Fold this protein.
Amino acid sequence: MTDTAPAAATLAAATREAPAKPATKPARPFFSSGPCAKPPGWHADGLASASLGRSHRSKLGKSRIVHAMDVTRRILKLPDTHRIGIVPASDTGAVEMCLWSMLGARPATILAWESFGEGWVTDVVKQLKIENKVLKAPYGELPDLNSVDWSTDVVFTWNGTTSGVRVPNGDWIADDRQGLAICDATSGIFAADLPWDKLDVVTFSWQKVLGGEGAHGVLILGPRAIERLESYTPAWPLPKIFRMTKGGKFNESIFKGDTINTPSMLAVEDCIWSLEWALGLGGLTALIDRADANAAALDAWVQKTDWIEHLAVDPATRSNTSVCLKFADHAVEGLDDEGKLALVKKIASLLEAEDAAYDVAGYRDAPPGIRIWCGATVETADIEALGPWLDWAYHTAKAA
Ligand SMILES: Cc1ncc(COP(=O)(O)O)c(C=O)c1O
């Protein structure tokens, strides 16, 4: 033993010691990136129930579906040129309907910078097997948007939910494109002002920024997408739930409340509650402001915390909804990916056991880290209260 050994041992003991638990917990510890936190004030018994137990094709049932889409249109400031409808199978269903109905008329470009974009690559390359080009970037980055060939159909996500990287705007989408711009916007819509004239297909699910339920997707089609549906028939068969044409003509009724099959009216009523909450706040601008304020509050904590960093390399592409964080190198020195993953799991389970934060572990395919949903249904005060708890959980997990 040397003279410095006792001092070093004391220091080690001190750093091993778990820090004190913060005094204040987030009032609503819901930080999942989907299904996301319900809007503040939401209660199941606050939902309108007259349409429940009734046919979705009854006058009342259909009027509620139409109302949900009308309010959505109002909040999104959707131009009259674009149709909007409810479709089966959540956001995945809405994207798949379009990929399988529209692609193949010309080559496709697929952009992928995280897990969900990768999923669309698999669809196009391995299932549809059409001529394609894949533009990829590692987690934390975007592919070169300016290298996209707009004579092809282009499939991309607005916000990469599992990497926390989003496209900064739509400036890179050509006005004179020949191909379609097909955008999976499920975790970006209602948190960004989307350039509708540049988007031919937009999809999302209520389970994200609206804090609604999964199960149904929302599909928005611009005139060029409709023109494609009427002028092109894919070489492969289409199941009933993907079909948007009838006798070669666009099936307008799907977008006027006549859903392809039976929707959950409970999910529709739940969505209406969220939409009316959003309207009451002031609509799209208010939703974007809330997400921005949440992301800024989280960023303020990241900036003053030495063990954590943003996964998104460029602040201009950093998500204001699914904010993904990684460990600083020195904070996980000596740990391989498995060790880092174990640390993430420990942090998440410590927080859950305290009811301080739920569902903060990063996505299973992403680099090990923490993901905090900052969408509009989360309160900024809860993000502010979360920081000290993340510190507590990290230091407690490390000490263990
Ligand atoms: C970008 C993106 N696309 C697709 C999906 C799949 O959505 P759903 O489960 O609503 O079909 C998700 C879900 O998190 C997502 O984040």
